[in-house]
Amino acid sequence: MPTITLAQGLNEALRYCMQRDDRVVVMGEDVGKAGGVFRITDKLQQEFGEQRVIDTPLAESGIVGTGIGLAIYGFKPVCEMQFDGFTYPAFEQITSHLAKYRSRTMGKLPLSVVVRIPYGGGIGAVEHHSESLEAYFTHTAGLKVVTPSTPSDAFALLVDVIEDPDPVIFLEPKRRYWIREDVELPVTNGDRRKARIVREGTDVTILTYGPSVRTVEDAAEEAAKDGVACEVIDLRWLNPLDLETIMTSVKKTGRAVVVTEAPITGSFSAELAARIAEDDFLSLHAPVIRVGGYDIPYPPAKVEDLYLPDLDRVLDAVDAVLNY
Amino acid sequence: MKGFVDPGSVSTESVQVLKPDGTLVPDHGYDIDLKEEDLREIYRVMILTRRIDQESTNLQRQGELGVYTPALGQEGAQVGAAYALEPQDWIFPSYRELGFAMLRGVQPSHILHLFRGTWHGGLFDYREYCIAPYAVPIATQTLHAVGFATGAKIDGTNTVAITCFGDGATSEGDFHEACNFAGVWKTPVVFFCQNNQYAISVPLAKQTAAPTIAVKALGYGFPGVRVDGNDVLASYVVTREAVRRARRGEGPTLIEAVTYRRGPHSTADDPSRYRTDEELNTWEALDPIARFEKYLETEGVLTAEFKEQCDAEGREAASKLRKEIVGAGPLDPNLLFEHVYAERTPNLEEQFAQFKRDQEGQ
Ligand SMILES: Cc1ncc(C[n+]2csc(CCOP(=O)(O)OP(=O)(O)O)c2C)c(N)n1
């Protein structure tokens, strides 16, 4: 079985979709000859030509806005934002049009557009290259929000969202682009619309996604040494959310910790904590505890480790819910 | 200084075919390829547009619409440009483009339901009329037109897109991005700016220091043209040339139709706060319909009978509109949950059930 990186999984997913459907076009900054700054579109232009792998001018609103026009025409654009922090210029097109077009046209002009965004910190980048944007988009009706954490999921989820009839914000955990997995492509097994139970356990449920999944896996391993069995759930889809898997686990463990990189105030982790409390308060032996970024601007590279949830902070939270 | 390009050297003249008194400009430089029935059709749609526009304002005043954005004074620019398009060419409008929709035969009430608060996108069939829903966020639709036309170009079809927007819109980043993308990609798109002198209360001089809006096109590497927007024939011929260029694969054109918004920005606006009666009077004297009418009468194209026929059609359309709008009930509120996604998500399913329970409880 070949070993691929998460980045290669994404690249192969794009290739796979473009081969199967000539309506799929890829567009963004440097996606052509350069293959994207993270090489996610590597060699696609060579294979599919400049009309289907489009180097756009440097303008994010333009990328999403023209992507919308292409979708109205009948294409399926996959738009690349070069970095999380440079998605903001496209915010109006995403929230005012991409998210709303289906509804305001009563389904007559649906937009099947994917916006791919490398997100999150941990790569020692300069400012504006380490942001966690998910809350903006999970808060916006009409968008779906997806984030993979493994190479096989990267492939399967990207194929899935390109085929999806709705607009999807596809968040790529950039510090995990280079993690490896043995994968037979194309990946077809499994229902990846459901959350992934990464590790089963009976004591504490840890909900996480994207770049934090690895951190949480390591923490769970560590906790196991102390006899604490964590159930680790990788959400994959933030919207639609697989609440069933989450609640089944919480009912079993009675304790939940949410781990993300995003600043916690107004975060998606807040949504998870609220849902769990609303839906099954009586199963809980302790309040849901969130581990996330502080409510400060994402810090400079030399001190970003102090900001990103690490093993110790996750374990502290696990202790807190166990000893409540 | 050597090497400095002076914006003062740019011509601010507009293309004109008809003088304000309705006589032909002797060497206007364009081929007028319109037959008598074309001229009459253009006239008919202008009259219809004005009548429906007036009725819409009335309906708002009577509380039947939440708000309305009148096109009064801009009928010449709009109907002239619209007449230069083929039926399969797509229009990406803002919220003041009634003339385009009237030419395509959209049922006016289907547009006005947007202003009545029935449904955000109005209720017409966008694909049938090749018109995108009105875009309210300023200039955003310009990018959609460029994307759409890019699709047509990739497919090798002959379809052109036109996007309509105001002078204020040219200050937005999306306008710049749209022009820039279109210039680089040589997209078959026409940028149709109605410079109606104001963005709500803000006059053009506070939007741009450029000598004209048309000249901005040069910065994007394609032609711009300034046209008398109250001269329907001039609007028609320059748009026709822009559309032909686009169809021939020569890329975009920016048209600046110089006109005037004689009504308020919207029915919620009070223009007396920022403009004078004298100014309004000056522009009333330049009315696009009166000008065209004089021309048609001189040419013997417009009979009293046809005029009466157009007026009667306008009256009928207005009363039909009134019937369709007055007292029209809201849509089935369940539709609110219907088209957010292709299928309701589990979360929405839950909220939808709650919504229905909430309704029943009332
Ligand atoms: C992005 C955005 N900002 C502000 C507004 C509020 N607004 C509505 S119309 C308008 C003026 C637009 O002027 P112009 O582009 O000249 O078009 P006109 O109304 O004159 O046709 C403003 C500021 C808006 N709709 N969208």
List the helices and strands and how they pair.
The complex is a heterodimer of chains A (324) and B (362).
Chain A: E1 3-5, H1 6-20, E2 24-28, H2 44-48, E3 53-55, H3 60-73, E4 76-80, H4 91-98, H5 101-104, E5 114-119, H6 134-138, E6 144-146, H7 151-163, E7 168-173, E8 180-182, E9 196-199, E10 204-208, H8 212-225, E11 230-234, E12 237-239, H9 243-253, E13 256-263, H10 268-280, E14 289-293, H11 311-322
Parallel strand pairs in A: 2-3, 2-4, 4-5, 5-7, 6-7, 10-11, 10-13, 13-14
Antiparallel strand pairs in A: 1-8, 6-12, 9-11
Helix pairs in contact in A: 1-7, 3-4, 8-11
Chain B: H1 36-61, H2 75-83, E1 90-92, H3 98-104, H4 108-116, H5 126-129, H6 140-155, E2 161-166, H7 173-185, E3 189-195, E4 198-199, E5 202-203, E6 224-228, H8 232-247, E7 253-258, H9 277-284, H10 288-299, H11 304-325, H12 346-361
Parallel strand pairs in B: 1-2, 2-3, 3-7, 6-7
Antiparallel strand pairs in B: 4-5
Helix pairs in contact in B: 1-2, 1-3, 1-10, 1-11, 2-3, 2-8, 4-11, 6-7
